[in-house]
């Protein structure tokens, strides 16, 4: 079992930056692949960024070169640095964990709201 708690959301102007954090419980955090998802009102949830157990990363095209995912296994935490934010980035952001080789994310946080004003 892994419990995930996000923090760092808020209101920011377009062009600004935020850093989201996701703190995980448990002793086996390093064995989980982690992802950041977002869901805007009326839209489907989408995978924004993911990081594997070895540190490999993937990004949605819409956030490449603006967002950076990272992890600190000593702190059981995964981060999402978001730069050059746009109003269309407004959404609830959730972190999730999966246990490779499973592809499904089995553990989810409750999410944190990010609002980008124009």
Secondary-structure element string:
EEEEEEEEEEE
User: How far apart are the termini?
Assistant: 40 Å
Helical residue percent? under 10%
Radius of gyration: 13 Å
Overall pLDDT: 97
Oligomer category:
single chain
Helix count, DSSP H or I runs of 4 or more residues: 0
Question: DSSP strand (E) fraction?
Answer: over 45%
Unreliable stretches (pLDDT < 50, length at least 5) are: none
Helix/strand/pairing class, anyone?
mainly beta
Largest sheet: 7 strands, mixed
- The tally of beta strands, per DSSP, is 11
**Overall outline:** globular
What does this protein look like?
It is a single chain. The mean pLDDT is 97. The protein has strands at residues 4-7, 10-13, 18-24, 33-39, 46-51, 57-59, 67-72, 77-82, 91-98, 107-108, 112-117. The protein is globular. It has no helices and eleven strands. The protein is mainly beta and 118 residues long. The termini are far apart. The strands form two sheets. Strands 2, 4, 5, 6, 9, 10 and 11 form a seven-stranded mixed β-sheet that branches. Strands 1-3-8-7 form a four-stranded antiparallel β-sheet, with no helix packed on it.
List the helices and strands and how they pair.
Layout: E1 4-7, E2 10-13, E3 18-24, E4 33-39, E5 46-51, E6 57-59, E7 67-72, E8 77-82, E9 91-98, E10 107-108, E11 112-117
Parallel strand pairs: 2-11
Antiparallel strand pairs: 1-3, 3-8, 4-5, 4-9, 5-6, 7-8, 9-10, 9-11
List its traits:
mainly beta, 4-stranded antiparallel sheet
